[in-house]
Each structure stands twice: as C-alpha cells, then as structure tokens.
Design a protein that fits this description.
Elements (H helix, E strand, L loop, with lengths): L2 H11 L8 E5 L4 H17 L2 E8 L6 H14 L4 E5 L8 H22 L4 E3 L4 H14 L3 H4 L5 E4 L2 E4 L7 H10 L16 H16 L4 H30 L8 E5 H6 L2 H16 L7 H12 L6 E4 L3 E5 L3 E6 L4
Parallel strand pairs: 1-2, 1-4, 2-3, 4-6
Antiparallel strand pairs: 5-6, 7-10, 8-9, 9-10
Helix pairs in contact: 5-8, 5-9, 9-11
Length: 333
C-alpha cells in the first residue's frame, strides 16, 4: 500500500475531513510537514477540501528566515494561499522551556490564523514515530491513561479541529515518498542534538529498544496508544454523563461542587475522571495537574476533616465541605 492510499485510509477511519473543509496545513519545512502538504494537495480534489499553508518562524536559528521562504515558495509552486508570522522568543537556560514556549507560540499562531482565514480544521504532520516517542516519553515522566493516548488523530481545541493524517504512517515511509518524488525539504539542525528529552528518546532509547528488545517497538507503542484511546473514550463518555448528573445545575466556571456521598459510591477511576473534568472546566485544560495533585484530593476526601483545603496549580482549590467537594478557581488580588 502506497502512502497516498495509507493516508486515505487513516482519513476515512477517523473521519478527519468532510467535503468543503477549509484546512490550514502547518508546514515547518521539515520532511513530515512537507510530505503532509504534498499528500493532501494530491488528495484535495478527491476529498473536496481547500488548503491554506501556514508557517510560524520562531527566529531561534540563523537560517529560520530561509525556512520561511522555502515554505512560502513551496506554497506558491502548488498555487496555494500562504500565511506566516514571526515570533521573537528569548532563549532560556532550560532548553526544554524554550521548546515548550516555541510550541505554545506556534499553537497560538495556528489558532489565530485558522480563525482569521475561516479554516475549520488544522492539519499537522505528526507521524507514527512521533506517536511512539510521545507515548514512551509520557511513560518515563509518569502519566495516566489520558497521557498514554499520546497524539490523537483528531482533537477539538478552542473550536478548531486538529487532524493528523500521517499518524499511522512511519517516518521511513515519509522519507521514501519524498525521495521517490524528488521533493525537497529542510532539516532542522536542533533535531540532531540530544539536549532535548524527545531527541534523547528518538536518538538513543528507541534505537536501543529496537536492537535489544523488540524490532517492532514503535508499532507496539502505537498499538498501545490506539487501545488505550478506545478505552479512554468510553471512560470519558461515562464521566461526562456522571458530571452532568452529579454536578448541580447552578454550577458556574468559578465553583463546581460534587455531593460527597455520590462520589463515594462510584469507582475510583470515575471519581478521578470527574475531578479532571471539573478542573478542565475551571481552567480550560488539565496541564500541570498530575498524579501527586490527584493523590492529595483523594486524601482530602478520605482522611482529612471538613474545612480542609488542597491548593492546586493555576489558583485552583479543592475544599472539603460538610456534604460536598467544592472545586473553585481563586480570583487574583
């Protein structure tokens, strides 16, 4: 099966596109995003979608302007609309923090560009290798089921649907496709360094696991993600149903309460899911909320007296009242 057919199957399996979709394609100039753009351009008439090329220049390297021009010329050669923006990130002593800030800046640009151009979907070039790396990274850092899903094929954030048509395609297939069609791409020199955690996984740990433990480790990790995603989706559906039932109708985004007796009757897994849902409603996501925070809330519920408070990231507090668990976001000042 060639890469075009494989991508079409992924698109159909996860219903990534609908006829008439206006799709913003994030293109860095690297092999994955260039391959994604080339593949979607080849399929756009079959899929009945409209493409716009988007590039964000972080200005972290001397040749970053060259990358921007490369992507702009690529879009022009395909006769596709092009939009770009530049960031000026201050370098940090912590390499990972620079990586995180750059990722957030790019994410904000893509959302803003999509809304400006009325694109309802954003396509990104993550591959199966990226998925395997992400799952392994999160296992090493410590994560629950949600984190072990890795990179989802389709996800809605802030009203925009993010899709990853190459998520079932390996890096080797991407490189073979580009070579066969003599499609040029750019190489980010920072991908060669092992200062970043992801690069250490990619350059050191995964090759070691392939040599000494399992030649199919990338596929195994991807399969693990697929299995967990299906199980987690069911858990999310049940949690959503219970959330609407347990949380009072007059709840606001500032204070969400659960009846303690009702919480005690349900499985601990669903208890945790309800608490995560409450936090997501309060702050928009569950980032910076980890295992230790959940353990503290569980200890609050089972062992601490009425009136006890647990302070969570982003000014969120969990308060144990006489008959309720109250989760609220403290206002500044």
């Amino acid at each position: 099966m060639n890469i075009l057919e494989k991508t079409k199957k992924t698109i159909q399996r996860y219903q990534l596109f609908n006829q008439g979709d206006r799709v913003l394609v994030g293109v860095s100039g690297g092999p994955d995003s260039v391959a994604l753009l080339s593949i979607l351009n080849a399929l756009r008439h079959t899929l009945s979608i409209h493409l716009v090329v988007a590039h964000f220049n972080h200005n972290l390297r001397k040749n970053s302007v060259t990358d921007q021009r490369f992507v702009e010329n690529l879009a022009r050669s395909l006769q596709l609309p092009f939009i770009s923006a530049q960031g000026h990130l201050r370098k940090s002593r912590k390499k990972s923090s620079v990586e995180e800030i750059a990722r957030e800046s790019r994410f904000k640009f893509l959302l803003k560009a999509a809304k400006k151009l009325r694109a309802n979907k954003i396509a990104l070039g993550h591959t199966q290798d990226d998925l395997a790396e992400t799952v392994l990274m999160r296992i090493l850092r410590g994560t629950g089921l949600g984190g072990m899903r890795g990179i989802l094929p389709k996800r809605t954030l802030y009203g925009i649907i993010f899709v990853r048509p190459l998520i079932e395609t390996g890096k080797k297939d991407v490189l073979d496709f580009l070579k066969e069609r003599t499609i040029k791409f750019r190489i980010d020199p920072t991908n060669k360094t092992t200062k970043f955690f992801r690069n250490k996984i990619r350059k050191e740990l995964l090759p070691l696991l392939e040599r000494k433990y399992s030649k199919n480790i990338r596929q195994i990790l991807a399969n693990l993600s697929t299995t967990i995603t299906a199980d987690y989706d069911y858990l999310e559906q049940e949690s959503g149903r219970l959330f609407r039932t347990f949380s009072p109708k007059n709840r606001s985004l500032k204070n969400i309460r659960f009846n303690l007796r009702q919480l005690e009757k349900i499985h601990p897994s669903l208890q945790r899911s309800l608490i995560r849902l409450a936090i997501e409603n309060l702050k928009g996501d569950t980032r910076k909320f980890g295992f230790d925070h959940m353990s503290e809330i569980e200890d609050l519920l089972t062992h601490r007296p009425t009136g006890s408070v647990v302070h969570l990231p982003c000014r969120i507090q969990a308060l144990k009242e006489k008959t309720q668990l109250s989760l609220r976001r403290k206002t500044t000042g």
